[in-house]
Amino acid sequence: MAFKKSLVFAALLLAGCDDTLTLNQVCSETPGFCEDLNKDSHCKDERASLIYARYHEYKSPTDENKYDLLQNLESYNLCVSRAAKIEHIKLKEKTTSRVEGHLTALKEMTRIYNETKGSNHPGLLYYHWSRNNDRTAMNKLLNMQDDPRVQNDPEIQLFLAEFYAKVDDDKTVDILYRVLELNKRGHTPNPEVYSSLVSIFYKHEKYKHAYTFARVAQLSGVEDIDIIPVTNQLASMGKDLANLDSLAQRTYESIQAGEFVSPRDF
């Protein structure tokens, strides 16, 4: 259960490494998965990913494939619903096809939700709670926190962090650290991990912690981290930022190398 698969990887999953299935082949075999989406060039990547995901779920309707399809449906719908607002003076059919794609995505998401109401799949449970306010689903997920499918999935861990951020800051920090522990070599964590850590530490006046992770965020390419308030706080306290910069550099390197260890006593 990882983040949305690339088109190449999705194709390999569908057809095998020796005979990669193309988008044209999918649309030829199952035209219904292509014809009810937008016909123009908008949302090209999202559309292609969705078509592969629909085909994969059709061939093997497992909860994992339904979860992957749901993610692709949301990504496509977000893109095409924006594109549908673009007016075409001479080519009205383009706007119409985008609206059709938007309606298709909504219909398919409703189908997936209805078909997975009794699922124990962690990702689907979170979607049922966060999108449909299904408290039973969230309770199921909370009771599965020791399940390896939950413990070892950074995406699900981040879902849990979003939930606990409203009720338990200490628990949220532990989960966010876990997300960083699970980060694979060469990958960059979701920027929300850093912004959440900085926010929590600043709120609790742990300015050294906040500054360190704000700098890690900057080193990771996150642009919307406001480091000035915490820098001013530390400067007014006479703290040496050079040491914290060195700590941030080491922390960043350990995360990028996939070797981060949660600093419980940090």
From TrEMBL:
It comes from Pseudoalteromonas maricaloris. This is DUF2989 domain-containing protein. InterPro entries: DUF2989. It holds the Pfam family DUF2989.
